[in-house]
Structures are given as C-alpha cells and as structure tokens.
C-alpha cells in the first residue's frame, strides 16, 4: 500500500508499506522531499538507495511478477539517510538528472547502533528522445567488509515495444568474496484491447542471470559465504490491464525456467515456477 502527495507546492511525501512480508507488516519507504531551488531537491527519510534501474522499481510498476536477480539479490538496499537530486536543463529532447546521498548502513529495523562508516550511492540519468541511459555507483558496509557496486543500463521505447538491458558488478574489498556479476535483458510488447473491463494487453520476455553472490555479512566463523549460487533464468509472461485516469489494475501471469550449474544446491523456492499477480493502483 502506498500513499503520496504534496502538502505544499514545493514539499511532497511518500509512504510505502508491505502489509504482509512473510506474515509481518513492514514499512518500506517513508520520506519527505523539498524543492530547494529550480531543479534541485532535498529528500530525507527511509527509502531505496539511488542506484540501479530494475532495483529501483517499486511493486506498483514491476514488469514481471517476480523481481530480477539484480533487483532482488544483488541490489535490494533501503536505508535511512538523505540525498540531493538535480535536473540539468538541456536543449531539445534531452534531459540529465544526477542524484546522490549518504545513509545509515545498518538494517532499516535497527537505527540505534552507533556507526562510524556510512553507505553511499549516486547515479546519473540521461534521456534523449525515447532512450534512457543510467549509470551509478554504490558503496555499502553491511558488516566489516565494504562492498562496492557499479551498474549501467539502457532503456528504449519505440511504438508498442520496450527494450531494456542492465549490467551490475558487485566487488568485495580485501578479496573477501569473488566479484559477483548480474545481467538482465527484457522486452515488452503492449497493445490496446477490448475484453470485458480490460483495455490493454502486453506480453513480456526476460533473460537474467548472476554469478555466485554474497550479501556481505560474515557468519559465526568470520567467513563470507555465498548466499545465492550462480544461476540463469528465462521468463515469459502476459498481462491484461484496466487503466482509466488514476485507476490502474494489472493481472499478470509468468512462467520462470531456471538454469543452475551441475551439482548446485538449489535453495527452496528458487526453481521453476508459475507466478500470478494482481496489482491495483488508484
């Protein structure tokens, strides 16, 4: 459930809550933002670090029922902190935005731990016509190991088609774990329909993968183990939509086929599956 709006022409807010995260209610985002000057905004509170493309999407605008490996495993970081964002005016159909901030590296459920090192993130977004290019860096310290990430993505929309590709590199300092790589390619084709209350249909395909990954936290022995094995996945899906003014309803059905290396131990719930989802926004 999300709630957002303006309490003044230059001050807005956003709240997002997961009403049932494995049986528990969790506040995901709660922030306020003020327009300091033309094109310059200051935001503070709890929110996702400004880094990544697919990882930065919220549940209300997912393309697939299940998040990509990049968005779910390699880079799923929210924090308490603040950031500045600035939109640079350019001529024609161009726009450049940059944003960056500093955050408390501890869990969003534990804000009272005294910290000496912060987490940082920054990204740039360049749009020209129907093409959007994004790159960014992130440095987090979930334990005594600092983890540095870099990503780049390209999104292209033409007619009824949308294409997107993204790469992410996750490096662990002091050689604590082998560098993790993640990639994502997907496409979406949308068309108008008249089928009962639904007025739009779309079809999606995705290929994503990742090498062995660690969340950067040490176990009781002090070692940094892989929390997710290397894997690849192919996803095919379809969505029917009812959209009218502010009301938007998606019914989505996806099939996911996983590929692991020989001998890999597959975590529970991380194999082939069918995912169904309904999302209502108003």
CATH topology: Porin
In what order do the strands lie side by side in the largest sheet? Answer: 1-2-3-4-5-6-7-8-9-10-11-12-13-14-15
Percent helix, as a range, is: under 10%
The CATH C-level name is: Mainly Beta
Query: The biggest beta sheet, please?
Result: 15 strands, antiparallel
CATH superfamily: Porin
Uncertain spans: none
Along the chain, the helix and strand elements come as EEEEHEEEEEEEEEEE
Judged by helices, strands and strand pairing, the structural class is mainly beta
Mean pLDDT score: 91
Total domain units: 1
Please count the beta strands (DSSP E, at least 2 residues each): 15
Examine the secondary-structure arrangement and name the CATH architecture.
Beta Barrel
Gyration radius, in Å:
20 Å
Q: What's the number of helices? A: 1
The end-to-end span amounts to: 10 Å
Shape from CA axes? globular
Strand content bin? over 45%
Your description of this structure?
With 282 residues, the chain is mostly beta strands. A 15-stranded antiparallel beta sheet has the order 1-2-3-4-5-6-7-8-9-10-11-12-13-14-15. The protein has one helix spanning 69-74; strands at residues 2-8, 11-21, 24-37, 40-48, 78-89, 94-103, 119-128, 131-140, 147-158, 161-172, 180-195, 198-210, 231-244, 247-260, 273-281. The mean pLDDT is 91.
């Amino acid at each position: 459930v999300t709630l957002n709006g303006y309490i003044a022409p230059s001050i807005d807010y956003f709240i997002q809550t997961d009403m049932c995260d494995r049986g528990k209610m969790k506040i995901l985002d709660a922030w306020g933002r003020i327009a300091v000057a033309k094109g310059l905004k200051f935001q503070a509170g709890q929110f996702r670090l400004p880094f990544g493309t697919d990882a930065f999407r919220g549940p209300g605008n997912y393309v697939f029922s299940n998040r990509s490996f990049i968005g779910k495993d390699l880079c799923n970081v929210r924090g308490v902190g603040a950031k500045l964002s600035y939109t640079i005016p350019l001529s024609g159909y161009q726009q450049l935005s940059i944003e960056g901030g500093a955050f408390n590296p501890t869990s969003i459920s534990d804000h009272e731990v005294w910290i000496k090192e912060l987490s940082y993130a920054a990204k740039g977004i360049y749009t020209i016509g129907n093409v959007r290019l994004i790159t960014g860096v992130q440095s987090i310290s979930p334990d005594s190991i600092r983890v540095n990430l870099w990503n780049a993505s390209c999104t292209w929309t033409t007619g009824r088609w949308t294409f997107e590709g993204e790469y992410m590199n996750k490096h662990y300092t002091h050689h604590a774990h082998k560098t993790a790589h993640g990639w994502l390619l997907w496409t979406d084709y949308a068309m108008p329909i008249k089928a009962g209350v639904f007025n739009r249909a779309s079809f999606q395909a995705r290929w994503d993968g990742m090498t062995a990954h660690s969340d950067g936290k040490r176990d009781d022995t002090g070692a940094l183990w892989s929390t997710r094995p290397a894997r690849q996945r192919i996803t095919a899906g379809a969505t029917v939509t009812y959209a009218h003014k502010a009301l938007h309803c998606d019914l989505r059905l996806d099939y996911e086929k996983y590929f692991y290396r020989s001998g890999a131990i597959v975590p529970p719930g991380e194999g082939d599956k069918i995912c169904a989802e309904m999302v209502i926004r108003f």
